[in-house]
Structure formats: structure tokens, C-alpha cells
Amino acid sequence: MLDIWRLKILIQFDTLKTMKRVSEVMAITQSAVSAQLKQLEKDTNTTLLEKVGRNVELTATAKELIAQVRPIIDDLEAVEASLTGADSNYEGIVRIGAFSSALQALVVPAAAAVNQQYPEVDFRLAELEPPASLTALSAHQIDLAIVAYIGDMMPLPDDLTAVELGTDELKVLVNTHNQLAGQTSVSINDLRDQDWAMEPDGAYLSDKVWRLCQEAGYQPHRIATFQDYGAIRQAVTYNMGIGVLPGITIPKQLTNTALLALTPTQHRHFYLVSRKAQARMKTIEATRTQIQATSKRVLTLGSARRATINPGRSKARKTQQTKTKQRK
């Protein structure tokens, strides 16, 4: 009989790509990861790993094995969930991954509300960019993920499901002494000659802003790079530059700062993503419900599709749903 623990390590390697990252997630040494995978090769009488240059990669046989056993692992999780769901107690660990602004505005308030009603629920929160959150969710490292996209959501694996929580908009922050401060809205082209305070390259919002600027025919003149949105706001307060930030990251009271609409409007769509196998777990269900309730208070709901998203729908169906949404 194949060892489930070794199969989980193989699945983690497929997701994370390196022995080091698998060892960190599974809380074992790299040598133990290697040893367990070698033993799995003996158990299956196959070659699962091969050297490709300096890297170790999965063989076609390994990928076929993963495709066969991943649903079985999910089924075991579903069985566990059904047993947990039969219990009247709300207790256990719920692990949530989300990007910074969603953690602050949605996850922390929701987790606190759940704890007021169910003190035995123990939360583990991690700040992760959307792609990393989805990877961690598929790898069973977290239980819920909040992701956001400006534009269409990336396709989801079959084992995941998502609901749209709502939207916010990108806003332009300029100092009150800036020549643009008297306007109510600006385009990306209007910001061509401005100094910018921005997130580092690789952050999805920073990458989106760069693309908008490049489409307008220029590169933003970045004078400051900050991980924290608060630092960007502070740079605007002292007239060091401008910032483009999501709506939920901007406090109601601003000092020496004018808030301008960006045209055309750039909507950021928020999604709560979970594994289908955990849908009936009471702690997950309670947390999902509370995050959705918090989102109603924080996000714009008019364009949110309050329905489960089917990642396997065809392009034609997507187009039809978009037309229907527009008519509504």
C-alpha cells in the first residue's frame, strides 16, 4: 500500500518545485524529503525524479501518479471535513493567506468577529501575494485565500472554488500643492511628468501601474520604493511624489493630500478562494461567512458576482455571463 505521507510530499514537490521549500512546508529536513521520495520510488517501482541541468524535476510517470492520487487526497480531506461537520463544536485551526490590504481590512476584523462567537477557533494568518496564496492553497498549506485582480481572474485548478467579495478602485494621491490637486480625476497620461512613490517590482499592483504607464508611452519616474502603503501616503503628504493606491488602503482623513479618481476606472476584484473538499467544515464555513459579511461593509458591491465561480467554464460561457452582467 502506498504511504499517504510520501504521496503528500510528492504533491508538495509538484507545487513548490524545490526540496528546500518542501522541507520548510512539511517541517522536515531536505534529506528527509529526498529519502521519502526515494522510498516512494521503491514502493512504486518507478522513477519519479530526474536531473535536468542543475535542477531536479518530476518525470512523466510522477506527474501521472500525482494526477491519480491528488483526488484521493482531496477525498480523504472531504471525509475528515464531513466528520468534523457532524460535530457541534467550532474548534481547530484556520489558516488564511491574503495580501496586505485585505489582511488589514477584511481578514483581521473577520477573524476577530469569529473568535468572539467561537473562541476555540485558532487562526494562522500569512501575508501572501495572490499567486503565492493560490499555490499555498492547492498545496494544503492554507485553508482560505483572498486574492485580487484588476481585470479577469486567473483560471483556478479544479479542486478550488471562489466567490467574488466585491471591488474597490485605484485612486491617485497627490499633494495639495501639486498642480493636479484641483482636478477631480486624472488619466495615466496626465501623470507622465510626475515623481512616483511605488511598491517594489513584482507586486501585482506595481506591475499593473507599470503596464498602464507603458501603454500610455512612458515609464513612471520612480523616486521611492516602499513595501508599505502607509509610506507611500507619507511621501505624498510631504510632496515627495504621487501615489496610486487601492481604495481600501486610503484612510478617510488625509493630511495635505488630494484624492483623485483615475480614468478610465481601474476596478480591483476581490475573491475568497477555498478548497472544495473543505466546504462543509464548520470552522471554514463560519470564517467564510464572516469574511463575506465584513466585505459587504468595506468593498463596493455593485459589480460583485455573489455566486460561486466555476473555473472550468468555457470562454463562450464567460462571454455570455459578462454580457448578462453588463445588462444588469
What does this structure look like?
It is a single chain. The protein is of the alpha/beta class and 328 residues long. It folds into 3 domains: 4-84, Winged helix-like DNA-binding domain superfamily/Winged helix DNA-binding domain (Arc Repressor Mutant, subunit A, Orthogonal Bundle), CATH 1.10.10; 91-167 and 269-312, D-Maltodextrin-Binding Protein, domain 2 (3-Layer(aba) Sandwich), CATH 3.40.190; 169-267, D-Maltodextrin-Binding Protein, domain 2, CATH 3.40.190.290. The chain has helices at 4-16, 19-26, 30-44, 60-85, 100-117, 130-138, 204-215, 229-237, 282-298, 315-327; strands at residues 49-52, 55-58, 92-98, 121-127, 144-149, 160-175, 185-187, 195-198, 221-225, 243-246, 257-263, 267-275, 308-309. Strand 3, helix 5 and strand 4 form a beta-alpha-beta unit. Helix 1 (4-16) packs across helix 2 (19-26) and helix 1 (4-16) crosses helix 3.
